[in-house]
Amino acid sequence: MQKIYLIKRNFSMENINSEILGLLNSWKYKRAQPYKIARLKKIIEECVSNNLPIPLFGYWGIGNKKECNSYETDTICYLKSLVEKVKEIYAPGLQIIFILSDVHALNNCIPENITQNYAEKVKKLLEENGFQTVLLSDLYKKYNLSPKTVIENANENNKLWWQFFPLKKDLIKQAQNVSLCEDKNLSAKRYALIRKEELKFLEKEYLNKIFITYSSPHFKILYPDLPTIYLYTEKKGCNIVPWFNN
Question: Where are any strands of DSSP class E within the chain?
């Protein structure tokens, strides 16, 4: 009896693996070469051999905007086109989880009502398009962490560490554009430490999954040490993230 992953074409398992890897590694969707591609390939092979969806996860940020607009829908549609291409050759397809980063919004002094409203709207939009979502604050709770305590601890972290942090200038520049806090330097420093804290539980929670990001490899030290795909947002060549785009 023909297995479910052999659809539309008389593909062998090896063909399926190669086709899926080719799509995930296509320059139509990726902005840079994947990280840990051998492990990425292994995850694909293990999923296909067990007829399971291929698991991916990544952050979906929250900025100072209450409503979703065309930037969100265009980004979702572009990613969905990749999902549909994979499903054409492999029925279980991709399983994508987005972590809605309400904790990062808190660090950026985004008003709670804006964060909550945007999170609700984008959660609905993502789930209507077949993606799963989880609040970052809920993952903190799962691992017995308090977002406010983590942020407060970051306030007090020694300044010498921050002085030599390789992404200091990048994160300060980013904070100047997206943070509503008065002290942009402190906001940037806290963000680095928060992300460092999150790596500990993300690498446990999403072990054997593929990390996706709309950022570049330049920020790799902020990402989980897992197979990583660097994606475009709305279309090939576009790197502007929708949650900061009004």
Answer: 54-60, 94-100, 132-135, 210-213, 228-230
Residue 8 in this model has a pLDDT that exceeds 50: no
Q: How far is Cα 41 from Cα 37, in angstroms, rounded to an integer?
A: 6
CA distances from 128 to 98, 114, 123, 125, 141 (A): 13, 21, 8, 5, 26
Strands, E assignment, 61-157: 94-100, 132-135
Using an 8 Å Cβ cutoff, are 241 and 62 in contact? no
CA-to-CA separations, 117 to 76, 120, 128, in angstroms, rounded: 19, 5, 17
- List CB contacts of 240: < 8 A, sequence separation 6 or more: 71, 233, 234
Amino acid at 134: V
42-75 residue pLDDT tens: 999 999 999 999 999 999 999 999 999 999 999 9
Token pair, residue 131, equals 């993606």
Is residue 71 within 8 Å of 111, Cβ to Cβ? Answer: no
**In this structure, what are the phi and psi dihedrals at residue 68, rounded to the nearest 5 degrees?**
-80, 150
Task: Kindly indicate whether the domain formed by 13-244 is annotated with CATH number 3.40.50.620.
Answer: yes
Cα–Cα distance, 102 to 165 (Å, whole number): 24
Region for residue 196 given its phi and psi (left: phi exceeds 0; alpha: psi -120 to 50; beta: otherwise): alpha
- Whether the pLDDT of residue 172 is over 70: the answer is yes
Q: Does residue 1 surpass a pLDDT of 50?
A: no
Confidence class of residue 5 from pLDDT cuts 50, 70 and 90? very low
Q: What single DSSP character describes residue 219? A: G
Token code pair at residue 235: 């279309």
The residue-averaged pLDDT of 34-39 equals: 97
